[in-house]
Design goal:
By secondary structure, the chain is α+β, with helices and mostly antiparallel strands. The protein is 23% helix and 18% strand. The strands form two sheets. It has a four-stranded antiparallel beta sheet, with no helix packed on it. The C terminus is likely disordered.
Length: 95
Amino acid sequence: MCYTTKVSGMCLQTSDTMSSAAVRFDECCCSGHGAGWGDSVLQKYNAVECRSCPDKDSAAFRKLCPAGIGYDKNGNVINDCDVVPNACEVLSQFK
């Protein structure tokens, strides 16, 4: 799962901070929305242990996301509906 919020080294797991679908590490981080990626095994206080996404200005980010923000490691467009919590639910309210 992809998480948008990290606190004290743990990813916050709520419906507002975790992806709506299981996604890969590169999809999470390369989307530009992810703060961390993990297996969604709840530890305590609605938090899970997770792997941090590299800083967007780092060599590690450029290696993971060679096509830049919005594209996975293979250059495919990332579906924000899968990665960003409630993204498509919010957008559908305006249709």
